[in-house]
Design goal:
The complex is a heterodimer of chains A (177) and B (378). Chain A has 177 residues and is an alpha+beta fold. Chain A has helices spanning 2-10, 12-35, 51-56, 80-92, 99-106, 112-117, and strands at residues 136-141, 144-151, 154-163, 166-176. A four-stranded antiparallel beta sheet of chain A has the order 1-2-3-4. In chain A, helix 1 packs across helix 2 (12-35). Chain B has 378 residues and is of the alpha+beta class. Chain B is built from eight helices and ten strands. In chain B, strands 1, 2, 4, 5, 6, 7, 9 and 10 form an eight-stranded antiparallel beta sheet that branches. In chain B, strands 3-8 form a two-stranded antiparallel sheet. In chain B, strand 5 (291-301) and strand 6 form a beta hairpin. In chain B, helix 3 (94-108) crosses helix 6. The longest helix of chain B is centred in the N-terminal third of the chain and has 35 residues, at 4-38. Classes of the chains: A alpha+beta (177), B alpha+beta (378).
């Protein structure tokens, strides 16, 4: 009997049958396994929502519809866009000066934090020559603005904030054009 | 017995046939099997690279096909691969690879630059724009990406606490450039490049050489960490709360809240009103009837990502414009504003958009940057 079955499996019909059974088994197992597998199982913590916390609260984020902020005007101190342009001119004066001389020229316009960042900075790394257009100001908060100064060949992107009663540059970024 | 010798080869043939059929069945259906198993990874709220925290194998920059990251071309990806490979060989932890790639993005766009001619009247060269006259090496050495990467790492490793500094501060400590904050803008693409080259290496703990996922409170190589460790009691825009634009994390009163990544404080103030519009104090417990998120902080990060932390118990520790490091304590949890109990309401916004339109699911975002929210239990 056993030998008979073995002999049948050896024929081409037997092999076809083995093939069909194997294909069905593989597909069936795959479907069964993938069907029961939660998709969000990798690395993400499960979402546990508690009805007490969710039913009564709505949007617990910022409720005030804030009006657009206006940059603080400080009597007797330069406006942020003026400080930004003064800084830019000092920043561009980088040819034939030592690091110490160059940083000293920046010092009146920058925060202590940025001064620390400019320690031993290389004036040769100034990638620009001259201002090529009007500055653009973006007010983030009454005490925080961003000023873009177009220079050849790119844009000097400055972040200014009110520090010790004055607008000072706290961040300097550079984008090639 | 006489039949046996003729039966043996037949039995071998049968076994061979079964083995062949099985192999063919696996070949034909194996692909379908992988689709079944990997299908979940291609959902729109996940990425195609899965959620690994890096593989231990060394990157091969000469591989026939390197994966792509964002807009980076083949030459840029090969240089990024060299930077990662040198970092791996020097046992620099993965945070260093992200810093190095972001630095090279700023200095050379990851193109091995020779002398720029009249556009550049000094002698900066190569991926990191190092200068022979400043002792970085001979021009030939600096033009070798392996050499310039090694010199960058050697200097980076001498910077105190470089693993926990903001990326741009660490980079500036090495580069001493005229634009100290410029490196930050390349943190997202550098993170992506490291992730595709190392199967999620930027999601690994940033300061550990042998790659593994972060433990609660650690900072990932991409520069992110969880604000508080706590169970998520309410998710992002759930069916019950479609206008809930963040997640609520359980946190006992006065739990320290950490900045999720380095950045600049945009807001630090009280937001609490009655439904009639009268201003309320944030130094008292709020209620479900109160409007607003109480004492809160907004922080702007690299890549114009913004995070928000609400319902603090007292005025936050940070002021507008202040620069914070990843993991820095910005305030203590409470239940001020629109809140029924102590928790941290945490939001993530893209494109610097502070309105609810800019909010994305913090659970997905934080998982992608290697700092999954929750209480640390899977």
């Amino acid at each position: 009997m056993a030998r008979g079955i073995l002999r049948f499996l050896g024929t081409r019909y037997g092999m076809a049958l083995i093939g069909i059974v194997l294909v069905l088994a593989v597909v069936g197992v795959a479907r069964a396994i993938s069907g029961s597998r939660p998709v969000e199982s990798v690395g993400s913590p499960p979402l546990l929502s508690s009805p007490t916390a969710s039913s009564e609260l709505g949007d617990d984020s910022v409720a005030n519809s804030e009006s657009p902020p206006v940059a603080t005007a400080i009597p007797g101190a330069a406006a942020p866009d003026v400080v930004a342009l003064d800084f830019t001119r000092a920043w561009l004066r980088s040819k034939g000066v030592t690091s110490a001389q160059w940083v000293k020229g920046l010092q009146p316009y920058i925060t202590p934090r940025l001064l620390e960042q400019y320690k031993d900075a290389d004036p040769e790394s100034v990638p620009a020559d001259s201002i090529r257009g009007p500055a653009q100001i973006r007010v983030r908060d009454s005490q925080l603005v961003e000023v873009d100064v177009p220079v050849t060949p790119g844009t000097l992107k400055l972040r200014l904030l009110v520090t010790n009663g004055r607008w000072l540059v706290d961040g300097v970024s550079w984008e090639r054009s | 017995m006489t039949g046996q010798p003729t039966l043996e080869p037949r039995r071998v043939r049968v076994i061979l046939a079964i083995a062949l059929t099985a192999a063919l069945a696996l070949l034909c259906c194996g692909g379908g099997l992988s689709v079944f198993f990997l299908g979940g990874l291609f959902d729109d709220d996940t990425d195609v690279y899965g959620y690994g925290c890096g593989s231990g194998s060394t990157v091969d920059p000469a591989a026939a096909a390197l994966p792509r990251a964002g807009q980076l071309g083949d030459e840029q990806m090969r240089n990024a691969a060299v930077i990662v490979q040198v970092g791996q060989q020097m046992n620099v932890p993965p945070r260093g690879w992200v810093i190095a790639i972001a630095t090279a993005m700023q200095e050379s766009r990851l193109i091995n630059l020779g002398n720029l001619g009249n556009r550049n009247d000094h002698d900066s060269l190569g991926l990191f724009q190092q200068r022979p006259s400043q002792g970085w090496g001979t021009p030939e050495q600096i033009m070798d990406p392996r050499y310039s990467s090694r010199k960058f790492y050697e200097k980076l490793l001498t910077v105190p606490n470089w693993q926990t500094l903001a990326l741009t501060e660490a980079a500036q400590s090495v580069q001493r450039s005229a634009y100290p904050d410029a490196y930050a803008q390349h943190e997202p693409i550098a993170t992506l490049a490291v992730n595709v080259l190392t199967n999620g290496g930027a999601r690994a703990a940033g300061g550990v050489v042998d790659l593994r996922c972060v433990l609660a409170g650690e900072i990932s190589a991409s520069g992110w960490t969880i604000p508080v460790r706590g169970k998520i009691i309410s998710g992002f825009r759930t069916p019950e709360r479609p206008t809930h634009h963040g997640v609520d994390l359980v946190a006992a009163r006065r739990t320290p809240i950490h900045a999720a990544s380095a950045g600049t404080v945009l807001r630090s103030r009280c937001d609490a009103r009655t439904p009639g519009g009268a201003t309320l104090s944030c130094d008292q417990d709020g209620s479900p009837q109160t409007l607003g998120c109480g004492w809160y902080v907004d922080i702007l990060h690299a890549g114009a990502v913004m995070t928000r932390y609400c319902h603090m118990i007292q005025q936050p520790n940070v002021r507008v414009g202040q620069t914070v490091a990843a993991g820095e304590v910005i305030g203590l949890s409470g239940t001020s504003g629109n809140s029924s109990g102590p928790h941290v309401h945490f939001e993530v916004h893209l494109d610097g958009d502070r309105t609810s339109a800019g909010a994305v699911n913090p659970q997905n975002f934080m998982r992608d940057v290697g700092a999954p929210l929750g209480d640390g239990t899977p």
